[in-house]
Amino acid sequence: MTRSLTALAFAALISSAGLAGTANAAEPIVGQWKAPGGGIVKVSACGNAFCAQVISGEHKGKSVGTMRGSGTDYTGTVIDPRDEKSYQGSATIAGNGKTLKLTGCALKIFCKTQTWTKI
After folding, report:
1. What is the pLDDT of residues 92-101, one digit of tens each?
2. Distances (CA, A) of 9 to 12, 14, 19, 65
3. Which one of 27, 42, 55, 109 is least enclosed by Cβ atoms within 10 Å?
C-alpha cells in the first residue's frame, strides 16, 4: 500500500512539475516531417497531446492538427492548411519510425492518406 501511494505521489509530482511533457518528447511522432508537397512540419508535445505546425514552405506558420496517442498509433484532428478545414484523423508511425501515414476523414467515409518522411 505504501509503495503504491509513493508511486502515485511521484506521478502527481512529475505531472505538476511539467515533466510529463518531457516524457512525451520521446514519442516517435515528435520531430520534423517532410510532407508530400515539400513543406516541413514540426510535431511537438503540447499539454497532453502532440501539435503539428508547418515550419517551411507555402503554409509556414499554420497548424495542421493535434493528435493524442503513443507508440505507433495516434488519433485527433487534421487541418488542411490550404483551406483550414478540420477532419477527424489518425497517424501511424511505420518503417522503423521513418514514415508517418496521416489520414484525414470527412464523415468517416471520405478519407485521404499522405505519407510523411522523418527528417
Report:
1. 999 999 999 9
2. 5, 9, 14, 33
3. 109
The 10s digit of each residue's pLDDT in 57-76 is 999 999 999 999 999 999 99
**Position 80, amino acid:** D
- How many angstroms separate the CA atoms of 7 and 42, rounded? 33
* Cβ atoms of 82 and 65 closer than 8 Å: no
CA distance 119 to 111: 25
Instruction: Please state the separation of Cα 8 from the chain's center in Å.
Output: 27
Q: Are strands 110-118 and 86-94 parallel, antiparallel or unpaired?
A: unpaired
Q: What is the mean pLDDT of residues 103-116?
A: 91
The grid cell for 89 is 484523423
Cα(63)–Cα(59) distance, integer angstroms: 9
